[in-house]
Specification:
- The complex is a heterodimer.
- Chain A contains 13 helices and 12 strands.
- By secondary structure, chain A is an alpha/beta fold.
- Chain A has an 8-stranded mixed sheet with strand order 6-7-8-3-9-10-12-11, with helices on both faces. In chain A, strands 2-1-4-5 form a 4-stranded antiparallel sheet.
- Chain A is globular, with a radius of gyration of 21 Å.
- Chain A starts with a helix and ends in a 23-residue tail after the last strand.
- By secondary structure, chain B is an alpha/beta fold.
- Chain B has a domain of about 80 residues.
- In chain B, about 35% of the residues lie in helices and about 20% in strands.
- Chain B has a 7-stranded mixed sheet, sandwiched between helices. A 4-stranded antiparallel sheet of chain B has the order 3-2-5-6.
- In chain B, helix 4 runs parallel beside helix 7.
- Chain B is globular and about 65 Å long.
- Classes of the chains: A alpha/beta, B alpha/beta.
- The interface between A and B is large, with 44 and 47 residues.
């Protein structure tokens, strides 16, 4: 308890999130298998990868919806993995989560105002009903909803409004870290734009750090400071947004970016997406050596036997035997076919 | 006069001609209009993208074509497949046509496949039903079709069950079933939405190859503007049950005329947009649920350019100044025409 309290005033140079060698195994399935990441205060890092890459599991381990098999998760310098449930709940004030499906993550039998206020009741702070209601109104205003929404039920709202309610609930406890798991994937394009704008505004104004878990690369390119690419439970590349989109180093990152269609027919005509083949190998029996070697067009002998370490490349790291310190050496495509032309 | 009416859709060279198609549903809360007077054509070997947000009527419109809607749907208008009318056709006729002349691929392959039959049997079933092939011949043909859609080691996989395959392979099986009888028209309703981008790229290539190799015409329904940009030759934008814009793909993205289309493109994150320096344009408000077919623009309430005219008169789907006979049509009283903003105001 004291340990938790002491971090409330921690200085800005303690990272918002430090994950070290995280493993989450479900029986034989190694969903997350040696994942490390540091997220500085106020930064938005996007965690991307195909379904089955383990990105959602990482998010759930961070908020301790799952008990990791091994490894450590530090939020604001406090090791979450060694706290009791009660301590976590009090500590939860510092970490919040927004889920993909707002309809499924909002209690249909509670008024929106009560849903948003619930983290306040669960936390350490004791507030009067009127203070709570004032906080709810303020929070609704911050996400662009009127105070009257507090007296509605979730089913009376549109998908975009519901996701705003989820964000309000997540932010009412003034978290230093927000885990957003596919927050816009269930929304239509026009609504998605407003939620992405809202997240960008709130993050800039409030300054919380955010782990943005998604498969939508265009949203990542719009929002992220840094991008971490996951493949079969591990990070294969992590670099700042501009660098990873302009010159992805890892062959998997290149294939992922090349496969994501851009809303511009001229660009699509020029592009020749790398076809990786359909099958992501089973996480219960990951390939030896580099886990990507079974789908990598560049794979050679070494890749099947030796696990590539994360190597330093411009701005960050990439785990590929071929990649050089300047980020080259592992190009799947000729320079002219790169994403940005 | 800067406008002209669109040419009537009666030319028989089109594989599929939809005219004045409307669909409404009787519900407990009254009638809901899902599709309102849609005109559409699909030429031989053409891929037409239908784009719109949820509830715009794109799927309902496509399902109405082959009589796939429930009895509560009231369908009017005309849909001709190679000249023969589909709407109102007898169920026995439709059963012959479905799978042979017009075939569908849906979003979730697992729900389109029977979990207790091998994929080979399911592909073969289509051929046994429509082409009276023997079971052995159907199996051989199933392997050929699986090769065609890029399923590796098809001769082994023909005897596996759907659950033993990845999502991408399952969707390829569904495509193999759909093209088994060489349909003239393939309706692909969000076929890649449930798939990862790396798998999606492969499926889009298969569909493109089918068009190029077999000349199949494809009606490709999606909400994803990136996918549209990748695969469509021509795009039809739907909003609240109506077609609001129709154009060759490059024209639509370069020069969106309808304010809704322009808004949709502005709302999409693109490689050159970054939250630090740029903002996605939001479209305020919600898609209306309509019980009637109002004589007004259904986008007016969300449109910054709306005038009194927009609320009292339904804009026709027409070409614009300088290109009345062109193939870029929009249903907007104040279209977004670069450099012609003032002229548009006068219209």
């Amino acid at each position: 308890m004291t340990a938790v309290r002491s971090t409330q005033g921690s200085s800005g140079d303690v990272p918002a999130l430090e994950v070290e060698d995280l493993k989450m195994h479900f029986g034989p399935v190694r969903a997350v298998d040696g994942f490390s990441l540091t997220l500085p205060q106020g930064q938005l890092t996007a965690l991307v990868g195909e379904s089955g890459s383990g990105k959602t599991t990482v998010g759930r381990c961070v908020v301790r919806l799952l008990e990791p098999t091994s490894g450590s998760v530090k939020v604001g310098g406090v090791d979450m993995t060694h706290l009791s449930r009660r301590q976590v709940r009090h500590h939860d004030a510092r970490v919040s989560m927004v889920f993909q499906d707002p309809a499924g993550s909002l209690n249909p039998r509670m008024l929106v105002g009560d849903i948003i206020a619930e983290p306040l009741r669960m936390g350490r702070e004791r507030l009067s009903a009127s203070r709570r209601s004032a906080r709810v109104t303020a929070e609704l205003g911050r996400v662009g909803l009127g105070a009257e929404v507090a007296y509605r039920y979730a089913h009376e709202l549109s998908g975009g409004q519901r996701q705003r309610v989820s964000i309000a609930r997540a932010l009412i406890s003034s978290p230093s870290l927000l885990i957003a798991d596919e927050p816009t994937s269930a929304l239509d394009v026009s609504v998605q734009a407003s939620v992405l704008n809202l997240l960008a505004d709130l993050q800039r104004d409030i300054g919380f750090a955010c782990l943005f878990i998604t498969h939508d690369l265009s949203a990542v390119e719009y929002l992220a400071d840094e991008v971490a690419v996951m493949y079969l439970g591990q990070i294969v590349e992590m670099r700042p947004r501009e660098q990873i989109f302009a010159a992805p180093a890892h062959p998997y990152t290149q294939a992922l970016l090349a496969a994501a269609p851009v809303a511009d027919p001229a660009v699509q005509k020029r592009r020749d997406p790398v076809i990786l083949g359909d099958d992501l190998p089973s996480p219960s029996d990951p390939p030896s050596g580099c886990r990507f070697h079974t789908r990598c067009p560049l794979a050679f002998d070494l890749c099947t036997t030796q696990i590539p370490e994360l190597r330093t490349v411009p701005g960050g790291v990439a785990a590929c035997h071929l990649v050089q310190p300047d980020g080259t050496g592992s190009e799947l495509l000729g320079g002219s076919e790169r994403r940005h032309i | 006069m800067t406008t002209t009416t669109s040419p009537p859709v009666t030319d028989t060279s089109h594989v599929l001609e939809v005219a004045d198609l409307s669909v409404s549903f009787r519900t407990e809360g009254g009638t809901v209009s899902a599709v309102d007077k849609v005109d559409l054509r699909l030429d031989a070997g053409e891929i037409v993208g239908i784009v719109g947000e949820s509830g715009c009527g794109k799927s309902v419109m496509a399902m109405a074509l082959a009589g796939l809607l429930p009895a509560s749907a009231h369908v009017t208008g005309s849909a001709r497949l190679d000249g023969s009318e589909l709407l109102g056709a007898k169920e026995s006729t439709l059963r012959r046509i479905r799978g042979r002349d017009i075939a569908y691929i849906f979003q979730e392959p697992m729900t389109s496949l029977n979990p207790v039959l091998t994929v080979g049997r399911q592909i073969g079933e289509v051929l046994q039903a429509h082409e009276q092939l023997s079971r052995a011949r159907a199996r051989t043909r199933a392997i050929e079709l699986m090769n065609l859609v890029g399923i590796p080691s098809a001769h082994e996989r023909v005897d596996t069950y759907p659950h033993q395959m990845s999502g991408g392979l399952r969707q390829r099986v569904v495509i193999a079933m759909a093209v088994a009888c060489g349909p003239k028209v393939l309706v692909a309703d969000e076929p890649t939405t449930a798939l990862d981008v790396t798998v999606q790229a492969g499926i889009l290539n298969v569909l493109r190859d089918l068009r190029n190799g077999l000349g199949t015409s494809i009606l490709f329904i999606t909400h994803d503007l990136g996918v549209i940009a990748d695969i469509a030759d021509r795009v039809v934008v739907m909003y609240a049950g109506r077609v609001v814009e129709s154009a060759p793909v490059q024209d639509l993205f370069d020069d969106p005329r309808h304010r809704y289309t322009a808004g949709l493109l502005q709302a999409s994150p693109k490689p050159d947009r970054y939250a630090g320096s740029d903002r996605l344009q939001e479209i305020p408000g919600l898609v209306p649920v309509l019980s009637t077919h109002p004589d007004a623009c259904t986008f007016a309430d969300r449109c910054a350019n709306a005038s009194a005219q927009c609320r009292t008169s339904e804009p026709p789907l027409v070409g614009y100044a300088g290109e009345p006979q062109g193939d870029h049509l929009a249903a907007c009283w104040h279209p977004n025409i670069s450099g012609h903003e003032e002229n548009a105001e006068e219209r």
